[in-house]
Amino acid sequence: MTKVLVATEADWSRARLRDILEELGCEVIEAGDGQEALDLAVAKKPALIVLSQRLPLIDGLSLAVLLKGAAETKNIPVLAICDLDLKTRNQARAAGCDQCLALSLDRAEILAQLRKFLISLERRPR
């Protein structure tokens, strides 16, 4: 079972992502702020981190920089919840995020994107 850390400031978005990820067979760990997400990433070593850019305490892009700069978390893929515009996506990539996901998409599209990303994780050499 793939362990995924979901870090968003909004209960509804965590619930939406949890439901989709559990449908895909993932174990979901949840955080409501950037500091909690950082602590859980170090302690739980998830296979994937999905984070919002608007996290309190440590914003999502700063969190991505911290995660990618730390030896114990640098190899964990980070998927950022982004708007669809190119500027936001470029900022996320510059911070070290591996890919962007738009929660504004319908459920089927989010499910398809997450499924595709999880399949690519399984194919990565360890």
UniProtKB/TrEMBL annotation:
The keyword RNA-binding does not apply. Gene3D superfamilies: 3.40.50.2300. Pfam families: Response_reg. It comes from the Bacteria. Keywords: Phosphoprotein. The keyword Cell wall biogenesis/degradation does not apply. GO terms for biological process: phosphorelay signal transduction system. SMART domains: REC. Transmembrane segments: none annotated. PANTHER family: CHEY SUBFAMILY, STRESS RESPONSE REGULATOR PROTEIN 1. This is Response regulator. It comes from Thermosulfuriphilus ammonigenes.
